[in-house]
Design a protein that fits this description.
Blueprint lengths: L1 H26 L11 H41 L18 H13 L3 H22 L19 H13 L3 H22 L8
Length: 200
Amino acid sequence: MKYRLIISVVAASMLAFASLSSFAWQGKGGGGGGSSDGSADRVQQMDRDRMQDRDRDMDRDMDRDMDQTRDQDRDRIHQQDPSSLSAAEIYGGGLMTEGELNQYRKELAKQNTHQQREQFQLKHEEKMRQRAMQQGKDLVPPGQGPVYGGELMSVQERNTYREQLRSMNSEQEREQFQLQHEEKMRERAKELGLKIEETE
């Protein structure tokens, strides 16, 4: 009877010790069920990362829509009645007077073939690029909107970015270019201690 009591006490002690060790190990972050002081910070960081990923995806979707709109706008220039083109549908329309816009529409209407219209458009675009550079103004092609981090860029940088984006042929190429640009702008903002305004 005495030996049974001793064995019971020893067994109970061992079980208690094992439970305490397991609890202490989990408390230090060793187990999946425990929580530590840093777990709340990790959860918040994961939430922030998820929100940033979601925002980035939304920006990419918006850029894809803008790219599609740009292509549709360019096609419309060659298909629709030139007299119905708005200033926003004309490359560099924001840099042109009402008289120039009307003259552009008339000249475009005189071009009989798709090839002639394309040639006319290319000459017009070069003229608008020169004007934007001389006047130090933004040249926003049809279908494009605000540039991510544009407030941290010079006018020339914004215009160069828009032209580079416009010249790319594949969606994958544009997406890669935009991701690199966004990373560059985030680094620039960090260096300047500024916050980038989100584009709508």
